């Protein structure tokens, strides 16, 4: 733990700029056009020419804007803190592998939701995990074995969040929100915590549209500026 509030600016700025950059990518992917052109020498006889972006077959494939943004931002933030704090190479490799594992978890849950019933997963698995996580949290506050109960509760609640996120096609924003939550705890800064709530809320509210990238990106950049302001 660093407790250095201002060190949170880089992960926030990185995520914000990547989200805004993904807006241009998303607009390019969604672009389409149509036009009429005459057939032969008769200007009154025309045909419609049009172009629409490629629509993949139903299913799952990696490479959506949110997936790329989260992967780059997550690994970039881990690399930033690894270099900044001069972490030993072996520990740095473990940290980077842990980051990659989180990204794979997000991709795996998203893929599972695409090939099965996402709502069923959220109901049949997400709800019991959320209940178990809450019970573990209560046990951690009241009974013995607090460390084990806390870890078990965090694992259950994290998995439940991914399952609920996948049910509304927002597993990757869940990863971003969790990462910002850890950043807030690590740097003792309120801005990443507020950004975590804002990112998850707006990404779900505007899911499937360009605003689902633009609004979270603007909010995260605002949080980065808030971190850099004089104390």
Which runs of at least 5 residues are low in confidence (pLDDT < 50)?
A: 31-36, 48-52
**Beta strand count:** 2
Number of DSSP helices? 8
- Summing up helix and strand content along with how strands pair, one would put the structural category as mainly alpha
How would a textbook summarize the main sheet? 2 strands, antiparallel
The percent range for helix content is over 70%
Shape: globular
Global Rg: 22 Å
Provide mean pLDDT, rounded.
81
Output the strand order for the largest sheet: 1-2
Q: Strand content of the residues, in percent?
A: 5-15%
Distance from first to last alpha carbon: 20 Å
What pattern of helices and strands is seen along the backbone?
HEEHHHHHHH
Summarize the structure.
The protein is mostly helical and 231 residues long.
